[in-house]
Amino acid sequence: MSAGRGVLVTGGASGIGRAVAAAFRAAGDRVAIADVNGEAAASAAKELDAFAVAADVADAASVAAGVGRAADELGGIDVLVNNAGIVAGGGPLVDLPLQVFDAVVAVNLRGTFTVTQAVAARMIAAGRGGRIVNISSIGARQPTAGLGHYEATKAAVDALTRTAALELAAHGIRVNGVAPGPVRTPMTAGLISDPAARAAWESRIPDGRIATPDDITPLVVFLASDQAAHITGAVVQVDGGQLLT
C-alpha cells in the first residue's frame, strides 16, 4: 500500500462511503473502511486494496476499538470521513416509533460525535493537523414529510461540524460537511425502484436526475486536500439545484 495519508471512512462498505474510499485510494492514500457489516467491509477493502475495520458507530466501545485499530493499521489518521448513516424507516412524526428515532440519532448524530471525538483526540496528540469531512444531507435545510427524524439528525451534524471547526482550528484540523440531495445507494434503492417515488424526487431537482456516489466524491476529496486549506466550518450541498426550489 502507498505512503499517502491515512484515511478512515465510516460506513465505507457501500454507497457513498465506498465511492469515497475508492477515490482516496485512487489518489494514493492509505484507507481504512469501517462498517458495522464486517464481511462487507472486508469485501470492499479487498477490492480496493484497503484495510477493513468492523465497527458500530452507535457503540462507544466499538468506536474506540475500531479507531484504535484503524490508526495502528494506517500509521495514524490524517483524514476522517464520517459517512455512516441510516434512515431506519419513516413516517409522520406523530406516528414515528420511538425506537426508529433513537436508532437514527444513535448512528447519525451520536456516531458522528463519538467517532469525531475519538479521531480528533488522536489528531491533536499527533500534532500534525487533520481533515474531517461529515456527510450530511440537504434534508437538514429542506424538509420532506416522513423524514423528519432523519433530517433532524443531519441538521445536528451540520451544527456539530461548525462547532468542531471552531474548536479544532487551533490544532490545524479543518472540519467541513458535504450535503447531498438524493443519491443512488443501497439505502435509497427501494425509493428509486418505485417509478412514482422516483419521479417525485426528480421533479424537485432542477438538473432532473438523482445523483450517483461519483457526483459526491470529488467534493469530499477536495475538502480534505490542501487546495481547501482556508475552508473550515462549511457545509456544501451537492444536489443538482434542489435547494433552489
UniProtKB/TrEMBL annotation:
Pfam families on file: adh_short_C2 (PF13561)
E.C. code: 1.1.1.-
Signal peptide: none
Gene3D superfamilies with a match to the protein in the record: NAD(P)-binding Rossmann-like Domain
InterPro entries: NAD(P)-bd_dom_sf (IPR036291), SDR_fam (IPR002347)
UniProt-recorded Gene Ontology molecular function terms: oxidoreductase activity
Keywords tagged on the record: Oxidoreductase
Record PANTHER family: DEHYDROGENASES, SHORT CHAIN, ESTRADIOL 17-BETA-DEHYDROGENASE 8-RELATED
Record family assignment: Belongs to the short-chain dehydrogenases/reductases (SDR) family.
Protein name: SDR family NAD(P)-dependent oxidoreductase
Species the sequence originates in: Actinomadura yumaensis
